[in-house]
Design goal:
Distance between the termini: 61 Å
Strand content: 15-25%
Number of domains: 2
Number of helices: 5
Shape: elongated
Largest sheet: 6 strands, mixed
Helix content: 40-55%
Order of helices and strands: HEEEEEEEEEEEHHHH
Radius of gyration: 23 Å
Number of strands: 11
Length: 266
């Protein structure tokens, strides 16, 4: 029990939880590249297919295939549509087969896959489903980096506040204020600016839309507002602060960019 009351232990635990969620966010979600390998005609092909493209220009699609007798087609169409598939031969450059997906407006999506060809045989890559990639505008590093930093700092502070709230003899009100302040900067100020650069709109959550990234940030923000409102007049509200902390953790368990901005081609 003495270990649980240690301030150092509480911070270490909060850091470990934050790092775990940061890694979870990195490897999940609809923008994480599709990786794998496939055996075709006695050749092992390793692939990494991107699902996000920022800035101007087409999205490159590159696969390492040292076997010069193997060719490939890049097959793609707008998403979500029932348009005809476009098939484009990939060009060999050394040990790589290279193709490109045409540039789309911000929030435009393209689904694509490859067809490997050798000895008159073909093999789809990836085998099960096509890959969906989303285009976005370039976000300046001086906006994006602070946004990411403040969002994960908010997660750290939210976790630390929740741990403190478990101790009925503690009052984590000051930690909660820090959490709300940092979340406001990262999520409610820098977040919309990132959204504007990337997709042309400052806010696409409620009441203007159902963008899950915006909405989950709003839910976490309101959770801390309610928890701190309950502390007015010096009252303790550890249960509400613990609830706000758990809501924030739940928000970060939702993969980033799920149900994000999507251009309607129809």
């Amino acid at each position: 029990m003495s270990l649980l009351k240690s301030n150092t232990f509480r911070w270490v635990l909060a850091v470990l939880i934050t790092l775990g969620l940061a890694e979870y966010q990195r490897i999940t979600g609809p923008t994480h590249p599709v990786r794998g390998e496939v055996e075709f005609e006695n050749v092992t092909v390793h692939y990494k297919l991107a699902r996000s493209q920022g800035g101007e220009g087409d999205q490159p699609v590159i696969v390492d295939v040292p076997d010069t007798s193997m060719h490939a087609l890049l097959v793609y169409r707008h998403y979500p549509t029932r348009a005809e598939w476009t098939k484009s031969p990939m060009v060999r450059k050394g040990n790589q087969l290279v193709g490109s997906l045409p540039h789309q407006p911000p929030a435009g999506k393209v689904e694509y896959y490859l067809i490997l060809q050798k000895n008159g045989r073909q093999h789809k890559l990836p085998e099960a489903v096509s890959v969906v990639t989303r285009f976005k505008g370039a976000v300046p590093a001086f906006i994006l980096v602070p946004h990411i930093f403040f969002m994960f700092l908010a997660l750290l502070l939210a976790t630390r506040t929740g741990i403190e709230a478990l101790d009925k003899n503690s009052n984590p009100r000051k930690l909660a204020w820090w959490t709300l302040g940092v979340l406001t900067i990262g999520g409610m100020i820098l977040g919309p600016i990132v959204q504007k650069y990337a997709f042309g709109a400052l806010w696409t959550g409620v009441p203007f839309g159902w963008d899950l990234t915006d909405n989950k940030t709003l839910i976490a923000f309101l959770g801390w507002v309610v928890a701190l409102w309950a502390t007015r007049g010096g009252r303790k509200a550890n249960i509400l602060m613990l609830g706000a902390s758990l809501v924030t953790l739940a928000v970060f368990l939702i993969p980033h960019s799920v149900m994000g901005s999507e251009l309607k081609y129809e």
